[in-house]
Design a protein that fits this description.
The protein is an alpha+beta fold. The protein is built from five helices and six strands, in the order ααβαβαββαββ. Strands 1, 2, 3, 4, 5 and 6 form a six-stranded antiparallel beta sheet that branches. The model has no long low-confidence stretch (mean pLDDT 95).
Length: 164
């Protein structure tokens, strides 16, 4: 659980490939996430092609950290599932697992929001030729960190309300 208190947004990466076994461990962690009605609406695109990564880094003003990453994971969800209203929530939980495992393996990454902005979702889907039955959810560039950042202590007792 240490990664919860260590994980930060890493936006700069070393020019070093990420081992395939680490990528697989990260995806395994993502797929361990709970989901509404156990629908598991996720699929993951692992992008290492630098031309595609460059294109992905331009889908929004905030996607620039992807450009220098050796890997960008693009979580997507199925439009048709048992509880479609919860698909994006399911993906958010999976992405948190993915991020925590990334940190635990000595890597860094950052969650770049794509959904629910339709134009961003469509741009990612076009770049990766994602089938019509899937929707792009986020970009997660990752790699060996080229920066070091400290996690903030975000605990705020004033935001806790006991109902007894």
């Amino acid at each position: 659980m240490n990664s919860i208190y260590h994980r930060t947004s890493i936006r700069r990466y070393q020019n070093r490939p990420v081992e395939r076994e680490k990528i697989e461990a990260i995806l395994r962690a993502a797929m361990q996430a709970p989901s509404a009605t156990n629908q598991q609406p996720w699929e993951f695109y692992v992008v290492t092609d630098q031309n595609r990564i460059r294109e992905l880094s331009r889908v929004s003003l905030y996607a620039y950290p992807a450009e220098q990453a050796p890997v960008v994971i693009v979580p997507v969800y199925r439009k048709v599932c048992r509880a479609p209203a919860y698909a994006q929530i399911d993906l958010a939980i999976a992405l948190e697992n993915l991020w925590l495992e990334t940190d635990s393996l000595g890597l860094g990454g950052v969650w770049l929001g794509i959904a629910p902005v339709e134009e961003r979702m469509l741009a990612v889907e076009r770049i990766l030729d994602i089938p019509e039955e899937l929707r792009a959810f986020a970009l997660f560039p990752l790699g060996y960190p080229a920066e070091e950042r400290q996690q903030q202590d975000r605990y705020d007792e004033s935001r806790i309300h006991y109902v007894v």
